[in-house]
Write a structure and sequence with these properties.
- The complex is a heterodimer of chains A (217) and B (472).
- Chain A is an alpha/beta fold and 217 residues long.
- Chain A has five helices and twelve strands.
- Helix content of chain A is 24%, strand content 23%.
- In chain A, a hairpin with a 7-residue loop joins strand 10 and strand 11.
- Chain A is globular.
- Chain B starts with 10 loop residues before the first helix and ends with a helix.
- The chains are: A alpha/beta (217), B alpha/beta (472).
- At the A-B interface, helix 1, helix 4, helix 5, strand 9 and strand 10 of A face helix 2, helix 3, helix 4, strand 1 and helix 5 of B.
- Bound molecules: iron/sulfur cluster (SF4).
- The site of iron/sulfur cluster (SF4) has 14 residues of chain B, from helix 14.
């Protein structure tokens, strides 16, 4: 490594040395106390599900509840209502979910460009889990979820949550189930801005419409 | 710091000017009151707020105490996950590293996620000098950039602009940078947001290089975290081939689990939401998902100076939620620009003089830009005792042969409120002092309000009650 004034080694060593001398006399800081709650919600799956539903809706996601039998008809209806001619399908999405839909399926491939994705009307994905207390769905690029970009560029995202397996009550419960080595996207309601006189406007760059399907059984 | 702020007048002068701007003050008042009322409701939802606040404070204290160890651990984890780590001692070095990285890609354009760190170092100006255009993509930052303006709030940088002004800026300026604003653009927020969507989308879809900061970095895993609302962050973090993140060294936390604390406290404290619409977490690079090249630039730029100050170092716990701005009577009156730095409000008043030193007129005046009412400490989700640090910094300014007393009077007068309400100030000081065991005797003699005048009787109602009745 070169020894110029801005060589990486010299700044690295200089910063670390400055840190060490800055805190040399500081008192020892103990391991943090974690006296906070691991959940704020009673351990009752039905109540947790209701809370998830309520908080998703409060952040202006459109929420549906369905069963495996009804699932294809619900998705057909949601895509038809928006007049979506094309729907993006990530690898690993259960094929039966879209078995009744009329929209042309577009399969996401790593070669698909952002411009190609921009031309798609809707996207359907699963998720890693959903958090009731905050009304959040978390995607980890696992099967049925695809790359991060596919839930960002199309204007309409339908996300399916399997109940009860994928529902947790709280953020601490979610953290212990997530794998930090995967790319993670936490989504709480559709894209929004409050930058203009604090008036909330949905959909600046991400999808303007987020529909969450709670799939029971 | 950014060249934009060179030659800034001291706080009293700038605040005095702001005071005469009626639109600015009306916008600010509306915004800060709205956010702080909403925030109080969001916080009240969590029965364990006090414990979360204490945990956040302790996590950050532990990080700072062993910052060397956690930075080395972070470097190893990021490198093993496929990233490259760079170290920048100051703004100039950070800007040089980023400019060289961008040039190495052969690109002349970058898209940016809102980031205090890159504003602090004046990255956009430095890139421009190298022939590289940096596009801000946060709606408020876009408004500020197109308007050739400076941000005035951490969270809502264009808080000082109303919808009519924004419409005019878009109609006039968008065409210079890319897709023009639609004909007949109105001042409705929905139409303005749509104009920004169309204008920026063509940039996102072709961008090859993205630049961001980060809200947190996890030492044990090498994970970086960005909180946002609009999706512009996700665009910049996932569509380009190369991602460069410039992050202050104090943003590291030791463990993955630590995030569970800040994921609960940051959104509620800043946007007053249970959770912000989008949070992205990435660890190095992933096979076919997102940028294939990732650079992390770790920035010192005065942070190790702040770390060396035993009273002042707590400012490095700050998670930039902006809650302290929204409750500050001085900020509400003076506006963000008066602080002469990218960090306005109470946190700016203690952070900027520590990062930059107290030699300049503006930095020497900042510790006086406060009534010491203590509201900033009460809302802070990591319990930074801002009044304590302010008093400590006033001592330092006085020690360097300052004009502390004059500065204080000027600053408070410029903020325009407290001189009309001396009893409120005194009561606030005393109440705040008692709660934090900060006895008024510890205030430096010449600079102390308490020494300069008779303390009136503490009124029967508490300061907070008085505050509620009179200020909301
Ligand atoms: S000092 Fe505290 S309240 Fe102010 S921005 Fe930082 S974390 Fe938020």
């Amino acid at each position: 490594m070169s020894a110029g004034p801005y060589s990486r080694t010299s700044s690295r060593d200089r910063i670390l040395a400055r840190v060490r001398s800055a805190v040399a006399d500081a008192p020892e800081a103990p391991e943090p106390a974690r006296d906070y709650l691991t959940t704020h919600t009673p351990d009752d799956p039905a109540a947790v599900l209701d809370l998830l539903h309520e908080n998703l809706a409060d952040y202006r996601a459109i929420v549906h509840r369905t069963t495996p039998d009804e699932m294809p008809w619900l998705l057909m209806r949601l895509l038809a209502e928006r007049g979506s001619a094309t729907v993006l399908v990530p690898p690993g999405l259960p094929p039966e979910w879209l078995s009744a839909a009329d929209a042309t399926r577009i399969h996401d491939r790593s070669v698909s460009t952002a411009q190609e994705l921009d031309a798609v009307d809707s996207v359907v994905t699963g998720c890693a889990l959903a958090i009731a207390e905050t009304g959040t769905i978390v995607l980890d690029a696992g099967p049925g979820q695809g790359r991060r970009r596919i839930t960002l560029i199309p204007d309409h995202h339908i996300c399916v949550v399997r109940v009860p397996d994928q529902v947790v009550a709280s953020v601490p419960q979610a953290m212990s189930r997530l794998d930090p080595t995967r790319p993670l996207t936490w989504i709480s309601g559709p894209s929004a801005t409050s930058d203009i006189e604090l008036d909330r406007v949905e959909g600046v760059h991400g999808p303007r419409t987020l529909e969450v399907v709670l799939l029971q059984g | 710091m950014s060249a934009t702020y060179l030659g800034m007048p001291s706080f009293p002068e700038a605040a005095g000017e702001a005071l005469h701007n009626v639109t600015l003050r009306a916008n600010l008042r509306h915004a800060t009151h709205t956010i702080r009322d909403k925030r109080a409701r969001a916080v009240a939802e969590l029965a364990d707020w006090a414990e979360l606040r204490e945990a956040g404070k302790q996590i950050k204290n532990r990080t700072l105490r062993h910052l060397d160890r956690y930075l080395e651990q972070l470097e190893t984890a990021v490198t093993e996950a496929g990233g490259t780590v760079h170290w920048a001692a100051d703004a100039e070095e950070a800007n040089r590293i980023v400019a060289d990285l961008v040039k190495a890609t052969g690109e002349r354009e970058v898209v940016k996620v809102k980031s205090m760190a890159t504003q602090e170092i004046g990255l956009n100006e430095a890139l421009e000098a190298e022939g590289i255009s940096a596009y801000e993509t946060d709606l408020a930052e876009l408004i500020v950039q197109l308007g050739d303006d400076r941000p005035s709030h951490i969270l809502v940088p264009a808080i000082h602009r109303n919808r009519g002004e924004i419409r005019d800026i878009f109609a006039e300026k968008m065409a210079n940078w890319g897709r023009p604003a639609p004909d007949g653009l109105s001042d409705s927020p929905a139409e303005l947001a749509e104009a920004a969507r169309l204008h920026l989308r063509e940039k996102f879809l072709r961008a090859k290089v993205g630049i961001s900061g980060a809200n947190f970095m996890v030492a044990e895993t090498g994970t970086l975290v960005v909180f946002e609302s609009e999706g512009n962050g996700r665009m910049c973090l996932t569509l380009p081939e190369t991602l460069i993140s410039v992050v202050g060294i104090e943003k590291v936390v030791p463990s993955w689990r630590d995030l569970e604390v800040f994921l609960q406290t940051l959104p509620r404290s800043s946007t007053a939401e249970r959770m912000n619409p989008y949070t992205s977490m990435w660890t190095g690079t992933a096979d076919t998902d997102g940028p294939q090249t990732f650079h992390l630039v770790l920035l010192d730029n005065g942070r190790t100076d702040a770390l060396a100050d035993e009273v002042g170092r707590q400012a490095l716990r700050c998670i930039r939620c902006s809650a302290c701005l929204n409750v500050c009577p001085v900020y509400e009156r003076a506006g963000g620009h008066a602080y002469g730095s990218v960090y306005p409000g109470p946190i700016g008043a203690i952070l900027s003089p520590q990062l930059r030193g107290i030699q300049s007129e503006i930095d020497a005046s900042l510790p006086y830009a406060s009534t010491l009412c203590g509201a900033c400490y009460e809302v802070c989700p990591v319990a930074i005792d801002i009044p304590e640090v302010l008093v400590h910094l006033r001592e330092k300014v006085a020690d360097q042969g300052g004009k502390g007393h004059r500065l204080e009077k000027a600053a408070i007068k410029a903020a325009g409120w407290v001189l009309d309400h001396p009893a409120a100030l005194a009561a606030g000081e005393r109440a705040a002092s008692r709660t934090r065991k900060l006895h008024p005797k510890r205030l430096p003699g010449a600079g102390a309000w308490t020494a300069a005048r008779e303390l009136p009787e503490l009124p029967a109602e508490s300061f907070r009650d008085w505050w509620k009745k009179n200020r909301t």
